[in-house]
């Protein structure tokens, strides 16, 4: 069996810029998932245990691009609060 001619045509990783600083955004480029039909985006770097405990997620999906932008903004707000208050309790530890 001969190898597929389509193999290795799409790089599975987002390339870093050739010159300059890496992108400032926490999020990679959003894409429309073929299987689910939802707009999906992933964080560029893995989350720490503390970030996960605070309620941050590494993947977001939404039916529209505007809804996805709203969700990423909400996640960025949580990340900013976590960064400015390094000793804050995680969301699951707070009393309701």
Automatic annotation (TrEMBL):
Residues 1-20 are annotated as: Disordered. It comes from the Bacteria. This is Uncharacterized protein. It comes from Actinomadura syzygii.
């Amino acid at each position: 069996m001969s190898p597929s001619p389509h193999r290795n045509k799409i790089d599975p990783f987002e390339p870093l810029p050739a010159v300059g600083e890496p992108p400032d955004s926490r999020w990679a480029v959003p894409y429309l998932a073929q299987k689910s039909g939802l707009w999906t985006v992933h964080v560029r770097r893995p989350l720490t245990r503390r970030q996960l405990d605070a309620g941050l997620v590494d993947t977001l999906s939404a039916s529209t691009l505007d809804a996805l932008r709203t969700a990423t903004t909400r996640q960025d707000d949580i990340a900013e609060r976590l960064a400015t208050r390094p000793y804050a309790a995680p969301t699951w530890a707070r009393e309701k």
